[in-house]
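tool_call predict_complex ligand=adenosine-5'-diphosphate
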Amino acid sequence: MTDVILVLNAGSSSIKFRVFEVGTALQLVLRGQVDGLYTQARFRVYDQHGQALSPDPGTPSAPGETLGHEGGIAFISDFLRGHRDGYQVVAVGHRVVHGGDRFTTAVLATPEVVDELDKLSPLAPLHQPHNLKTIRVIHKRRPELPQVACFDTAFHRTQPAVAQAYALPASITELGVRRYGFHGLSYEYIASVLPDYAPAASKGRTVVAHLGNGASMCAMVGGKSMASTMGFTAVDGLPMGTRCGNLDPGVILYLIDQLGMDTRAVEDVIYRQSGLLGVSGLSSDMRELLVSADPRARAAVDLFVYRITRELGSLAAAMGGLDALVFTAGIGENAPPIRKSVADLVAWCGIELDAEANSKGGPCISTGQSRVGVWVIPTDEELMIARHTMALVR
Ligand code: ADP
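tool_result ok
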């Protein structure tokens, strides 16, 4: 049996997992997911190189039979025990979307902590309940197994109070209505490796652009979060695959009063019908938009880039300057045209891109003369969770 740390990211209908061998370093050995929970479950698993495992480990439920979170966890556990010489899970690290203002770092997810985290479920109803349910399911199966909750919000708790506040009546702010910021595990990972890439800049003022299906940007000084484009929820800030990003709250009132939408209909518009998909009417996938000749695809890409450059100005202002810009996540790591368009629009702040380095993917994509260093750095949120888990169970 090989000792491993299991990292889980549970959603409403899927459980994504990664398996890290516990040795001198944390070595990724498997990744996969069970999706189609509560409908028709499907299991996919890949090795560390992204190759699908052969033979296929099978499907978790018979046709017509549904599987919930409990069944999904049981299937993953059985698979790991039976794979190769057997993987012995020594700890589980969970991505938990919300740690509120109390949890400023990863914690052991004891039943008391989970009950406390449940009080934050109204702040993240689409994610928090599923994250916590998975912790409870595992606790029921193996109460002695250490579980660690790692939060998307924790990294941002170093922000000054003014960066976390909304100008709302104090009685509403006291209920927890404030800017939390998300993608914290990604930013924390980038902060941990930035000194290897840019030792001087990592001590200074950096904007990290996490551009994936979900997208946000973070201002960091000396590796600590100072401001973020995401606020109370993960729908704020940049336009994303299907989320609208920053919106005048008056638009919401218009949708309700003039278009007769109820809460769920508004939620559907701002979370699932907007962003790249909504503007283009074609796709939420940046790859498809970049190769499309349709002017609506161009409009969606242009708006995405424009909003990034506006936010860059705002975040640089919050730090009083800018020393480095980092692109990460699916689009940030893989789309040279997006990086170039952003860089062209923010040349005013002293950014000069090296076209060849940009097309090759970096890691450094700015010229020697550029006043601001520009980098492409792959993120690894799951490794960050595994590191936190390891540190807490040791
Ligand atoms: P998630 O937020 O789901 O983790 P990812 O970080 O995987 O998302 O990013 C997904 C996005 O990255 C999609 O819009 C996808 O089109 C985009 N992407 C991935 N590869 C490329 C590429 N080579 N060129 C442009 N966009 C890409």
